[in-house]
Amino acid sequence: MNPCSQNRKLIVCLVMEALEEQEAQPLRLHLGKCERCRNYFEEISHAAQKLNTVKPSTNIHASNAFHQRVMGALRAEERIPAWQMSLVQLQRSFLNWRVAVPVLGTAAIFITTLCLSIRQPTVPAPTLASAGNPVPNASGPKPDPEPTISNYQTVANHSLEKLDELLTRQGTRTSSSTPVYTASSLAQVNALE
Ligand SMILES: [Zn+2]
Fold first, then answer.
1. Is the Cβ–Cβ distance between 12 and 29 less than 8 Å?
2. Which pLDDT score, from 0 to 100, does residue 35 have?
3. In terms of CB atoms within 10 Å, which of 40, 112, 139, 186 comes out highest?
4. Alpha carbon of 41 to ligand 1 centroid (Å)
5. How many Å lie between the centroid of ligand 1 and the Cα of residue 52?
């Protein structure tokens, strides 16, 4: 149902509260008498309310999930052996953990750190002040930290690249008795078959 043509713009302006009072006053009087204009006014009001209730979308979570899907697909493509896949899974869970941090807040981090330090009393719990400095050592070259969850968290806090390097190094070390299959060596095996 169309409003009176001369009132169409004015009605929209009235809904948007962009009308001077001397223009709004006669229009309201008209709305009281004219059903077509009144219906149009209600229609526009309803649409404006809907627009106001639409919340701005948070693209951060969507892009994080997308990034991890892409990374997961890329790693699956590389034909990584099972033991390395488990390390990748572990690493990915840390990525999730990092994504969750802003949501959970610092209290949850503190509780997590506390729980981990209770469960592993031999490893000094990383305090909030020293979380960025993984395992300082005065003598000789810096060795890798023990493969514990709290140490991984410390490294992940510092840099995800460092965590990646650490996981790769420890994965290579713990499986030194078995042959290491890389993507290229698998390709060679496939070519021989
Ligand atoms: Zn009218």
1. no
2. 96
3. 40
4. 10
5. 26
C-alpha to C-alpha distance for 191 and 130, rounded to whole angstroms: 50
| Distance set, CA 41 to CA 12, 32, 38, 152, 178 (Å) | 7, 11, 5, 61, 76
C-alpha 97/C-alpha 80 separation (Å) is 23
Q: Of 58-62, 94-98, 180-184, where does the model show the most confidence? A: 94-98
Q: What three-state secondary structure class fits 88? A: helix
Share of the chain above pLDDT 90, in %: 22
User: 17 alpha carbon to ligand 1 midpoint, in Å?
Assistant: 19
- Sign (positive or negative) of CA dihedral 68, 72, 74, 80: positive
The domain limits of the chain are 5-53, 65-192
pLDDT at residue 95, rounded to an integer: 66
- Across the range 34-42, mean pLDDT stands at 96
State how far the Cα of 187 lies from the Cα of 116, in Å rounded to an integer. 41
| Ligand 1 centroid from CA 26, angstroms | 11
Distance, in Å, from the CA atom of 7 to the CA atom of 98, rounded to the nearest integer, reads 55
CB 131 within 8 A of CB 157: yes
